[in-house]
Amino acid sequence: MSRFRMEDGWKLSYIVMERNLLCFILFTLFSFVITSFIDHNGTHHYTYCVLGAGPAGLQMAHFLSKAGRDYIVLERNSGPGSFFNKYPRHRKLISINKIHTGRRNREFNLRHDWNSLLSDKPDLLFRRVSAEFYPPADAFPLYLSMFVKELDLRVRYGVDIGRIRSVQSASRRSYILTDQHASEYTCSVLLVATGLWVPQKVQFIGSDLVEGYESISTNPEDYRDQAVLILGKGNSAFETAQSILGSASLVHMLSSSPVRLAWQTHYVGDLRAVNNELIDTYQLKSLSGLVEAPLEKIVIAERKEQGRRRPDGKKEGRGKLYLTLKKYTLNKNDPSSGDVTREELPGYHIDNFPMRKPYDRVIRCLGFRFNFSIFDRSACPPRSENAKGRLPEVTAWYEGRNSPGLFVLGTAAHSRDYRASAGGFIHGFRYTARAVHRVLEHRYHGNRWLSTRLPTTQLLSWILRRVGEASGPYQMFELLGDVILLRGSHCEYVEEFLVQALPHFTSLSGHEVSSHGLIVVVMQYGKKKIDYLGRGRAETDWTRAWQSNFLHPVLYYYKTLPTEEEMKRRPQGWPLPRPEAIHHMVEDFLTEWDGPMSHVQPLRRFLEHCIQTDLRAFYAESCFHAALTHRKPPLFCQQGYLNQQGVPRNNQLWERVHNAGLTPAEQGATGTTGANSAFPHYLAPAGAAVSSGLKLDF
Ligand SMILES: *[C@@H]1O[C@H](CO)[C@@H](O)[C@H](O)[C@H]1NC(C)=O
Fold first, then answer.
1. pTM to 2 decimals?
2. Is 23 in the pocket of ligand 1 (CB under 6 A)?
3. N or C, where is the chain less crowded by C-beta within 10 Å?
4. Contact, 3 vs 11, CB < 8 A?
5. What domain of life does the UniProt record list for this protein's source (predicted)?
6. How far is the CA of 365 from the centre of ligand 1 (A)?
7. Beta-strand (E) ranges in 55-195?
8. Taking CA 56 as the corner, what is the angle to CA 52 and CA 59, rounded to the nearest 5 degrees?
9. Does residue 88 have a cis peptide bond before it, meaning omega lies within 30 degrees of 0?
């Protein structure tokens, strides 16, 4: 019975493999034939077209270039990162540029460098263009130019793609891009990294009287003694408010939801402390204020006041702007008639209405949306519900839904982790671009996802190293995780997989999951709403590690890959479905997770539980003893001592262990047999035995 099933399984995977192989060969043939040439119609052909030379497009270009692929980056402006030539309007980036960390580890340092892109050049870092913690916006295009030049990336500037359509032939699909001169580019794979350029607007009566963030004056003098109403409570709104706090007479901010502080939500897209001076002036009652109301229900009306003159004697050019509500207006359906009567103003109905006084200016700062209009029907990805329709909907591996071969990168790909992780920001999407590139390498070139084969006895140390330094899972918490494929005496360590795509792990990565199961390591914040600066905000006791509130590693052990269905029904707020076993490593104030008792030992015990084996490290003497007394000595002895490897317990080494105070006093000089011979006395209270993760730095 079981033999038949086995065989069926083999046959199936053989067929699947054969199909994959065929696709791969066909694709390789095609890309070989059509590789970057210009045909007689003047059409350019490429395997990969990257649309946009911003941070996401250039990050992908680097990976394509490194892999030796046929690609081109198409950019409508004359230089890279043109968004940053204009935005943020007040010219200060809020992505932190932390140059000093006290560490030399490049990987670790990327945890605190939010602007650099990934490359193999150790000095191709943002710090070369700015030393400021919140750098000037102009530094960013400068950095990108440097990135393009030093990595010799192929970028074509001044190509404004206005139309994208897809054509499907019998065997394959390709994308055809048309630029402003009607030149065409044909691409087998299209990587859309256009960013977000279209200002987000809300329609209400009088919305045409409102100025937009994209075109307001950034000179504070222009706001002198003016009453200003800002629509929106995100970073662009607060940045605008902050710049005029000293010149405006009052600043009010209005949007439908209360302000969300990044340091409370752990979401960097929420209001950052660098922009929040207005909150002080609100709470200290200094003529600033925050109000909530749905913007669809407001009316902005202009009312010219008769006979009013400005202090300098000139006649007032423009009337005051009054805010009222739709329900108070009489001709509700005529948005063009701005003039309102006194009875239509809210102050007439509610005498203490907060916004009863008129404003000199109303400014809209509601963020940006993806430009869907570049796509023809045949190539347009649908709008994601997740981000209020502002972003395209993509699969867990960033391929457009209904548009195979079209991938979305960068800010526009944020619908997968909207308001959850860092995928909408440079320090997050630089890693997702790398993950997407690995998907491409496997699908189109047959290269399996990069992995490391480890003896299982080294797994603990690897996990400790990764949680101590890895920047990808740290920045893209809950989205990118290391997948460990257990294989008995060894395991396959796959870094930074897209955890939402876990059900498709095998087809995306090319790695099989064995009957030993798998472990996924992700970083997570706690989900409880707590007083983030109050007492008891941090958990320090490892036995309550699951109650950690700050970022900490969590390990999920599965016997088989979770299915798409299980993924959909996962508990709310969880990045993954309920596993066979779960382990939280208690949050750490220094984010180093190297405490022998609080981090290392509980992790080892968890791994031992999943792998069903002893993962401790032993001296040769103990292995010798175990080899004589056990049918299956510990794995460490099997892979080391019994293979004639490992450290014999010589006197010199033992003396140093002794001098370091790591041996129990009464056993010191003579030593004892068994695992106890290296039993550090400080582990005794926890009933611990030797831990292979102990850092004995001699
Ligand atoms: C959006 O795309 C259309 C079509 O290519 C273009 O005309 C328009 O300028 C774009 N909008 C922005 C804000 O870039």
1. 0.86
2. no
3. N
4. no
5. Eukaryota
6. 20
7. 71-75, 155-157, 163-168, 173-178, 184-192
8. 110
9. yes
**In the Cβ-directed half-sphere of 281, how many Cα atoms lie within 13 Å?**
20
At residue 656, what is the residue type? Answer: R
Can 35-196+374-443 and 207-307+318-364 be said to share one CATH topology? yes
With bands split at pLDDT 50, 70 and 90, how would you rate the model's confidence at 19? low
* Residues forming a β-bridge with 400: 394, 403
Task: Indicate whether residue 371 lines ligand 1 (CB < 6 A).
Answer: yes
* pLDDT tens string 81-116: 999 999 999 999 999 999 999 999 999 999 999 999
Q: Determine if residue 691 is left, alpha or beta; phi over 0 gives left, psi from -120 to 50 gives alpha, anything else beta.
A: beta
Question: Would you say residue 681 has pLDDT above 70?
Answer: no
Indicate the DSSP class of residue 641. G
Q: Please, what is the angle between helix 601-611 and helix 459-469, to 10°?
A: 130
Give the H/E segment covering residue 557: strand 552-558
CATH assignment of 207-307+318-364? 3.50.50
Q: Residues 177-187: what's their mean pLDDT?
A: 96
Q: Which atom of ligand 1 is nearest to the CA of 160?
A: 5
Of the candidates 417, 595, 585, 609, which has an alpha carbon nearest to the alpha carbon of residue 499?
A: 417
**188/406 Cα distance (integer angstroms):** 9
Domain ranges across the chain: 1-30, 35-196+374-443, 207-307+318-364, 450-611, 620-686
- In whole angstroms, what separates CA 678 from the centre of its chain? 43
Nearest CA to ligand 1 atom 1: 371
Distances in Å between the Cα of 254 and the Cα atoms of 192, 238, 367 are: 34, 11, 14
Q: What are phi and psi of 289, to 5 degrees?
A: -165, 155
Nearest to 600 by CA among 521, 664, 688, 471: 688
- Say if residue 389 is exposed, middle or buried (CB neighbours under 10 Å; 0-12, 13-18, 19+): middle
Please indicate whether residue 291, judged by its CB atom, sits closer than 6 Å to ligand 1.
no
State the pLDDT confidence band at 7, using cuts at 50, 70 and 90. Answer: very low
Residue with CA at minimum distance from ligand 1 atom 10: 371
Task: Tell me the two tokens of residue 489.
Answer: 């005496």
Q: Which residue has the tokens 């609080």?
A: 598
CA distance 485 to 557: 10
Per-residue confidence (pLDDT) for residue 338, from 0 to 100: 55
Q: What is the pLDDT of residue 16?
A: 46
Mean residue pLDDT across the chain: 88
SS3 for 362?
strand
